[in-house]
Known about the structure:
- By secondary structure, the protein is α/β, with parallel strands linked by helices.
- It has a single domain (6-209, 247-276), classed as NAD(P)-binding Rossmann-like Domain (Rossmann fold, 3-Layer(aba) Sandwich), CATH 3.40.50.
- The protein is 42% helix and 13% strand.
- It is built from 10 helices and 7 strands.
- The chain has a 7-stranded parallel β-sheet with strand order 3-2-1-4-5-6-7, with helices on both faces.
- Pfam families: adh_short_C2 (PF13561).
- InterPro entries: NAD(P)-bd_dom_sf, SDR_fam, SDR_subfam_1.
- Keywords: NAD, Oxidoreductase.
- Belongs to the short-chain dehydrogenases/reductases (SDR) family.
- One of its GO terms (molecular function) is oxidoreductase activity.
Amino acid sequence: MNRLTGKVVAITGAARGQGRSHAVHMADEGADIIALDICADIATNEYPLATREDLEETARLVEKAGRRAITAEVDVRDRARLKQVLDDAVAELGGLHVVVANAGICPQGNHLPYKAYIDAFDVDFVGVVNTIHVGLDYLGEGGSVIVTGSIAGLVDQKDMANGGGPSGPGGAGYGMAKKMVRDYTKALALTLAPHKIRINAVHPTNVNTDMLHNMSMYRVFRPDLTEPTREDAEVVFPLLQAMPIPYVEPDDVSHAVVYLASDESRYVTGQQLFVDAGAGLKMGV
């Protein structure tokens, strides 16, 4: 406990899923939280995104842990709005020490228009860049940046973008974004190291969240079925991992995020931490 006492953390995609889990775990460790989320749907992303009520629940859980929470509805593709929100929140909370660039979408299906590629890439990479570049204005020595990647960044792009494949253009945009996250974090880590600001990426396998549990994703895993159920998909989910599990829990990722946010990782930078039950090993990495 108290590994993050005195720190202020900004988290995107904080209304539910991994983002909410990170917010709660970090609040439990003493951090005040700036919780950001779009709280609106994106047309090419067919599963519902988080709501304002979801974001308010994240804030309630942070406050239940005895910490302060500031929430704002913001699209990470809008850098000007991000800056305005962080200006106000940092002024109210008195600083910023950690940025968690977590917001993401994963449109799936070869029936989607090419705009699904644009939306996925813009949220999952441009949004990461916007969040970090705005956040760096406030970070000083000892600051930490943590990016949510994915084992999708290990998949050959031709397999993600083969036109007729089940992932479609959205999957191709998602995969390209996660590949670029790896090189971006390494390069930025070298740039920030002289300032003692560190940046690392955490790459999960399947995570037990709404991004995984929706019909579009089930169809990717079970293209042999027209209307696959969760039970149908869970038969094949374990094939990704070396360990015989279908997915990791958000808590499993949050433990890594807390470590990378804390001073325990003060000399850890540029790392690609796979919380993947051995999925990367199976893929030859």
